[in-house]
Amino acid sequence: MSLESIRYERGRLEILDQLLLPLQTRYIKVQGVEDGWKVINKMQVRGAPAIAIVGCLSLAIEILKDDCVDKKIMRQEIEGKLNYLVSARPTAVNIKLAADELINLANSLSADENVTADDFRERLIRNIESMLIKDIEDNKAIGKFGCETILKRLEGDSHVRVLTHCNTGSLATAGYGTALGVIRSLHAAKRLEHVYCTETRPYNQGARLTAYELVHEKIPSTLIIDSMVSALMHARNITAVVVGADRVAANGDTANKIGTYQIAIVAKYHNVPFYVAAPLTSIDMSLKSGDRIKIEERPDREMTHIGEHRIAAPGISCWNPSFDITPASLITGIIIEKGVFSPGKLHEAVP
Amino acid sequence: MSLESIRYERGRLEILDQLLLPLQTRYIKVQGVEDGWKVINKMQVRGAPAIAIVGCLSLAIEILKDDCVDKKIMRQEIEGKLNYLVSARPTAVNIKLAADELINLANSLSADENVTADDFRERLIRNIESMLIKDIEDNKAIGKFGCETILKRLEGDSHVRVLTHCNTGSLATAGYGTALGVIRSLHAAKRLEHVYCTETRPYNQGARLTAYELVHEKIPSTLIIDSMVSALMHARNITAVVVGADRVAANGDTANKIGTYQIAIVAKYHNVPFYVAAPLTSIDMSLKSGDRIKIEERPDREMTHIGEHRIAAPGISCWNPSFDITPASLITGIIIEKGVFSPGKLHEAVP
Question: What EC number(s) has UniProt assigned to this enzyme (chains A, B) (predicted)?
Fold first, then answer.
């Protein structure tokens, strides 16, 4: 079964400490909002969907323990705590959207005289719990559609060799994963021959996290260096590339981990289909194209050091954009929980 | 002036210990063939031209100290010592070729009755010393031709932004460098705005060695991760790519450090000219095309560890080809010491 990065049952939350991966597998208890803020801020949990869910679940843990009878005070506290949670990683948009939704719900429940304080608590907790379930369901739907669309291109019942980039698995979502979910589905369908994952410099999410998940689940897999993608496509007959997305613009241009654009170019050169797998919440129809997406630049130290160990010449300056934009023209299909759409038909899928 | 990786005057040889770079700059005295073997075998010196020159210079140091009067014994010793030196890095072809040349010279001098033992020593030492001079001269010619060809494409006296991969500088040659020699020439001509160098995973020659040379010589430069090349070409207006070569086939297909092929593909996509800079000795007209070049695969540990520090998930398997083949169709020009040739015209340049 999938690696569990988030272990939750009502009143109990534990998360896998991603800072210790891949060398140690240790879960941390999250006993309330303060713990939630800490694990998000310290990056013990990462990946936009996972951050949103862990933050909200930490609130659910706290709401359950609360015995306040005044809904107005509760509403006020919930709003304050959600804003506090959002502040742990201010650039992660998913937790902000989830917080806004919960604040709206709290407002309307608070205003409704037929709702008791206990009902109020129960409804909020259920709403949060449903986020966890929905994220996994959406990922499984993405996995199913992605698996189907990749297999549809094949003749007979041959097996596929897939390449992925960065980490889009159980460790970045509530579970299962987006691009890695597609790979899980292919494996479950017994049609996956092999998956290749890139190291994903400079933060090494591929080598540390994706490789960890693949080894954990005994999926036949091989790690390559980011610059080996072309050599790999030349040497082995790669069936498809599947990557995740940080954000998809209305025209299909996709912002994702640095290096994605390069993989899309070399996939086109080798006639390998290139898929983006992401939940609907990653599609931002307010952005006409990828040009409007601001590229975050990260500290030099991520490139010059591994832990405390310096790996680059002292004095060299660095350029460290954390993601790049893959133009829609290089994307074969965008896999969402409703199906697979060519970039040009994305508007048909998004309400 | 260029970084001195090899310091030589008659009777005295020191090499820069590349294992300590970029954190420490320390020279090692090489007092004879045994020291020469050690620095080559331990990779304190690397780069095919540099290995050949350091090996032969270590022999020159030893010949000078020798006071034998029997040319036949000397001839025999020299052959033995050269074969011993070649054994330090058996795959480096340049030192084998240089050794063969010296053995031929020793044979003919030994057979010539007009040559005294002292003449014999002097001729061999001079021949070795001339290798050092010739390598630097060839590199400077490569630099000059490369600089001219890149500037010729520009309008007016604008400045260039160049990208390079791996290390092809003073640290890989007798001095000056091939691709990095072209960059040095552009800088000397005051036409270089900026050079970008890739990290060059998994052995990080770009981050450790090229960055070290560029900082040392105050050439305006920035380090990028291998997967950032496309984002860089999109964001900054790159004038040209210049890389080195391990071997060039008769049709222009070029074997070079892993990742070169990928850079050539994305350069084509962005309409950026792509140059290979290499001495004539790297061109192998006996190979019809790159298909005939065997790709060396290196140990997993190079990918999974940085020093003693594990950076990849335990249990993951790795694919670690040390170079790839860039097809001639992606190469704008091959820069050798005789000029710049399109891959299809290489046969005109090579005798």
Answer: 5.3.1.23
B212, B231, B306: residue with CB nearest A309: B306
**Pair (A83, A166) in one structural domain:** no
CA distance A331 to A329: 6
Q: Considering all CA atoms of chain B, what is the largest pairwise distance in Å, rounded to the nearest integer?
A: 68
In total, how many domains does chain A have? 2
User: What's this model's pTM, rounded to 2 decimal places?
Assistant: 0.91
Both structure tokens of B227: 């997967």
- The pLDDT value recorded for residue B91 is 66
Q: Are B242 and B289 in a shared domain?
A: yes
Which of A35, A138, A246, A253 is an active site residue? A246
Tell me, what's the pLDDT at B305? 94
pLDDT in tens, B195-232: 999 999 999 999 999 999 999 999 999 999 999 999 99
Q: Within an 8 Å CB–CB cutoff, is residue B198 touching chain A? A: yes
Residue B1 maps to a domain: no
Sheet holding A6-9, edge to edge: A6-9, A12-16, A27-29
Q: Is A284 a catalytic residue?
A: no
Minimum distance, in Å, between the CA of residue B2 and any CA atom of chain A: 16
The answer to whether the Cβ–Cβ distance between B225 and A222 falls below 8 Å is no
Residue A61: give its domain's CATH number.
1.20.120.420
**Shared domain check, A343 and A226:** yes
- The Cβ-side half-sphere exposure at A59, using a 13 Å CA radius, reads 33
How do residues A300-337 score in pLDDT, each as one tens digit?
A: 999 999 888 899 999 999 999 998 999 999 999 999 99
| Domain encompassing residue B122 | 6-135
Q: Give A349's pLDDT tier (boundaries 50, 70, 90).
A: confident
Helix (H) or strand (E) holding A226: none
Cβ contacts below 8 Å, chain A against chain B, sum to 199
Assess if residue A12 is contained within a domain. yes
Residue where one domain finishes, among candidates A102, A135, A168: A135
The average pLDDT across B342-346 equals 95
State the best of A16, A316, A322 to mutate against chain B, taking most chain B CBs within 10 Å.
A316
Mean pLDDT across chain A, nearest whole number?
A: 93
Cβ pair B334, B252 in contact under 8 A: yes
State pLDDT tens for residues A58-70: 999 999 999 888 9
Please state, in angstroms and rounded to a whole number, the distance separating the CA atoms of residues B64 and B130: 16
From A111, A135, A159, give the residue that closes a domain.
Answer: A135
